[in-house]
């Protein structure tokens, strides 16, 4: 990968660090690991994928002011940049392995890069994910990760496997990040410091430090019939399963799991609206045959993670909500 | 990968196309291919790497106004975005396979995206490289590609394999793109239309449509001892081989291959300066034992590509130029 491609086509103000020094600061935080034949520092990294596995590849970009408030602290940006990508791997049932980072920065700022790396590598190290390349360029703050995971042949969680009559499940609680964003938009939340109110602080953490459900994705291999991560809101993302699998989806809005803090801060109606249409929680939504409920209860208990059945797939199309009697599928674990 | 992650944290002006529609326009241009189990459209793509091969991974970003003049036509941006990444794969001796594109656009503009795709996929299709994922976001124009190639075990061209006494080679001619850039900076070149002067037009094409030396990289497996692509200038990039291999490099500046158009437009001194320190040509610089000269002559003839020996590696360190008697290594093919 490029080591120094900042072309001085246009005048750039003096900076405190060269691009090379910036890359070195990041490289110093990256670690070797399984399958890395050659890491950062050549024209390309060399990797040895696992035999008997597919490589899962995802790419997501975060832009300042679009995907996070411009004042967000660099450590939180670092965490979230990787989290949204690991979440996509989780939704495929893939084990995180390696990836690249394209970092565009308006100023070469060592303190900023170090803090960014604190958040980024805290999450990377927790999942054994290794940075094996990337590029640092001058420009408006933007962060693109391409993440690779590995999943045994035939065990990936795709969007197109749901069957009519499957249960629809979600992990954790929904709407928390959207609730925090709403508070921020209403000038009721400072994302740069802990909130005095414990409920607000809970929501702030859910927005800034989402937990990619990697272990859940791995546990769902062989259990779930389809899966997505919830980045754009339950209804929108479940819609991808419905479209991909050619089924309908009936969701009972009253069963969508809401956190206590979200209800306390926004009230029931506001909380429910966030949970149905808000993104950024990075929980998983998946389908499974009703015969897998006991398996899922065990997964929930083992991971200490709430799994909630919020509806069923149907012979129709699209996603509908608000049925008063959503059938016998309701389950609520953990 | 994300299908629609534009968060409306801040007010965004009305656009003519949604992000989904933009992605669909790009997806329609992508093709299936070897090793693609699942392409664009799920949380991640699924790939089946070749047995007995390493995966080569590189990532490069181009930002408007930094890596290319802001007025550059979208088709030229598309070509160059992929070319700089394929060039990194070439420098590893890897065969292009797949990759992702993170596209940040200030406005959703169908005509722009279509023209960008024209240039991008023209090069992709020429090399059998397949787009398998990516992300489209709102923001200043920026393009990040992560490209994967495949190279048989042990056959990769690394930076750390040069031996003392190896010949130093470069492909093609150097400095052409830097010459074009200099003309542009001096207001002597309009990058958006063909130049009336044939020499200037040659240089313009070299800047806008660099040819990644993919076939050369593959041919150098087993012949070259080390390789880099020249993105930052011969002296800088050869310096990576010298440092990585713990050797010195003596370059005879008078042997660095210059095109006729570059000499015609800039004169010999100007041309030589561009060739030594200008980047953006994306030619390969590599080392090989003197015993491989005949092999390289055959490669040059087969590919119809000029290969020039410009010096030798030494027991010293760093890169030096200007020796009057660079030794017996001079060869000039094609």
Automatic annotation (TrEMBL), chains A, B:
<feature type="binding site">
    <location>
        <position position="88"/>
    </location>
    <ligand>
        <name>Mg(2+) 4</name>
    </ligand>
</feature>
<feature type="binding site">
    <location>
        <position position="58"/>
    </location>
    <ligand>
        <name>Mg(2+) 4</name>
    </ligand>
</feature>
<feature type="binding site">
    <location>
        <position position="43"/>
    </location>
    <ligand>
        <name>Mg(2+) 3</name>
    </ligand>
</feature>
<protein>
    <recommendedName>
        <fullName>Thiamine-monophosphate kinase</fullName>
        <ecNumber>2.7.4.16</ecNumber>
    </recommendedName>
</protein>
<dbReference type="GO" id="GO:0009030">
    <property type="term" value="F:thiamine-phosphate kinase activity"/>
</dbReference>
<feature type="binding site">
    <location>
        <position position="88"/>
    </location>
    <ligand>
        <name>Mg(2+) 3</name>
    </ligand>
</feature>
<feature type="domain" description="PurM-like C-terminal">
    <location>
        <begin position="163"/>
        <end position="319"/>
    </location>
</feature>
<dbReference type="InterPro" id="IPR036921">
    <property type="entry name" value="PurM-like_N_sf"/>
</dbReference>
<feature type="binding site">
    <location>
        <position position="232"/>
    </location>
    <ligand>
        <name>Mg(2+) 5</name>
    </ligand>
</feature>
<dbReference type="GO" id="GO:0000287">
    <property type="term" value="F:magnesium ion binding"/>
</dbReference>
<dbReference type="InterPro" id="IPR016188">
    <property type="entry name" value="PurM-like_N"/>
</dbReference>
<keyword id="KW-0418">Kinase</keyword>
<comment type="similarity">
    <text>Belongs to the thiamine-monophosphate kinase family.</text>
</comment>
<dbReference type="InterPro" id="IPR036676">
    <property type="entry name" value="PurM-like_C_sf"/>
</dbReference>
<feature type="binding site">
    <location>
        <position position="135"/>
    </location>
    <ligand>
        <name>Mg(2+) 1</name>
    </ligand>
</feature>
<feature type="binding site">
    <location>
        <position position="43"/>
    </location>
    <ligand>
        <name>Mg(2+) 4</name>
    </ligand>
</feature>
<feature type="binding site">
    <location>
        <position position="229"/>
    </location>
    <ligand>
        <name>Mg(2+) 3</name>
    </ligand>
</feature>
<dbReference type="InterPro" id="IPR010918">
    <property type="entry name" value="PurM-like_C_dom"/>
</dbReference>
<keyword id="KW-0808">Transferase</keyword>
<feature type="binding site">
    <location>
        <position position="159"/>
    </location>
    <ligand>
        <name>ATP</name>
    </ligand>
</feature>
<dbReference type="GO" id="GO:0009229">
    <property type="term" value="P:thiamine diphosphate biosynthetic process"/>
</dbReference>
<dbReference type="Pfam" id="PF02769">
    <property type="entry name" value="AIRS_C"/>
</dbReference>
<feature type="binding site">
    <location>
        <begin position="134"/>
        <end position="135"/>
    </location>
    <ligand>
        <name>ATP</name>
    </ligand>
</feature>
<comment type="function">
    <text>Catalyzes the ATP-dependent phosphorylation of thiamine-monophosphate (TMP) to form thiamine-pyrophosphate (TPP), the active form of vitamin B1.</text>
</comment>
<feature type="domain" description="PurM-like N-terminal">
    <location>
        <begin position="41"/>
        <end position="151"/>
    </location>
</feature>
<keyword id="KW-0547">Nucleotide-binding</keyword>
<feature type="binding site">
    <location>
        <position position="231"/>
    </location>
    <ligand>
        <name>ATP</name>
    </ligand>
</feature>
<dbReference type="InterPro" id="IPR006283">
    <property type="entry name" value="ThiL-like"/>
</dbReference>
<feature type="binding site">
    <location>
        <position position="280"/>
    </location>
    <ligand>
        <name>substrate</name>
    </ligand>
</feature>
<dbReference type="GO" id="GO:0005524">
    <property type="term" value="F:ATP binding"/>
</dbReference>
<keyword id="KW-0479">Metal-binding</keyword>
<dbReference type="Pfam" id="PF00586">
    <property type="entry name" value="AIRS"/>
</dbReference>
<feature type="binding site">
    <location>
        <position position="60"/>
    </location>
    <ligand>
        <name>Mg(2+) 1</name>
    </ligand>
</feature>
<comment type="pathway">
    <text>Cofactor biosynthesis; thiamine diphosphate biosynthesis; thiamine diphosphate from thiamine phosphate: step 1/1.</text>
</comment>
<feature type="binding site">
    <location>
        <position position="330"/>
    </location>
    <ligand>
        <name>substrate</name>
    </ligand>
</feature>
<keyword id="KW-0067">ATP-binding</keyword>
<feature type="binding site">
    <location>
        <position position="88"/>
    </location>
    <ligand>
        <name>Mg(2+) 2</name>
    </ligand>
</feature>
<feature type="binding site">
    <location>
        <position position="60"/>
    </location>
    <ligand>
        <name>Mg(2+) 2</name>
    </ligand>
</feature>
<keyword id="KW-0460">Magnesium</keyword>
<feature type="binding site">
    <location>
        <position position="67"/>
    </location>
    <ligand>
        <name>substrate</name>
    </ligand>
</feature>
<keyword id="KW-0784">Thiamine biosynthesis</keyword>
<dbReference type="GO" id="GO:0009228">
    <property type="term" value="P:thiamine biosynthetic process"/>
</dbReference>
């Amino acid at each position: 990968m490029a080591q120094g491609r900042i072309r001085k086509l246009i005048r750039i103000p003096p900076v405190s660090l060269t691009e090379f020094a910036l890359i070195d600061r990041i490289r110093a935080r990256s670690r070797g690991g399984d399958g890395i034949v050659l890491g950062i520092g050549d024209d390309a990294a060399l990797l040895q994928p696992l035999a008997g596995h597919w490589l899962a590849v995802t790419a997501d970009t975060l832009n300042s002011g679009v995907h996070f408030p411009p004042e967000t602290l660099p450590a939180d940006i670092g965490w979230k940049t990787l989290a949204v990508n690991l979440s996509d791997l989780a939704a495929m049932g893939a084990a995180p392995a390696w990836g690249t980072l394209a970092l565009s920065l308006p100023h070469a700022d060592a303190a900023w890069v170090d803090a960014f790396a604190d958040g980024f590598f805290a999450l990377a190290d927790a999942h054994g994910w290794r940075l094996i390349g990337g590029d640092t360029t001058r420009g408006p703050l933007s962060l693109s990760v391409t993440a690779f995971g590995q999943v045994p042949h035939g065990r990936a969680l795709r969007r197109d496997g749901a069957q009519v009559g499957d249960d629809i499940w979600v992990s954790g609680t929904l709407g928390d990040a959207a609730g925090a964003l709403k508070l921020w938009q209403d000038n009721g939340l400072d994302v740069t410091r802990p909130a005095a109110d414990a409920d607000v602080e809970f929501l702030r953490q859910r927005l800034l430090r989402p937990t990619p459900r990697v272990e859940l994705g791995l546990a769902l291999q062989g259990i779930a019939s389809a899966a997505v991560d919830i980045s754009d809101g339950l209804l929108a993302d479940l819609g991808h399963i419905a479209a991909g699998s050619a089924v309908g989806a009936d969701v009972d809005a009253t069963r969508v799991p809401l956190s206590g803090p979200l209800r306390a801060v926004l009230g029931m109606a506001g909380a429910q609206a966030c949970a149905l249409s808000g993104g950024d929680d990075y929980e998983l939504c998946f389908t499974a045959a009703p015969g897998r409920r006991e398996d899922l209860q065990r997964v929930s208990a083992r991971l200490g993670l709430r799994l909630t059945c919020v509806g069923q797939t149907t012979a129709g199309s699209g996603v509908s909500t608000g049925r008063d009697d959503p059938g016998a599928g309701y389950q609520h674990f953990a």
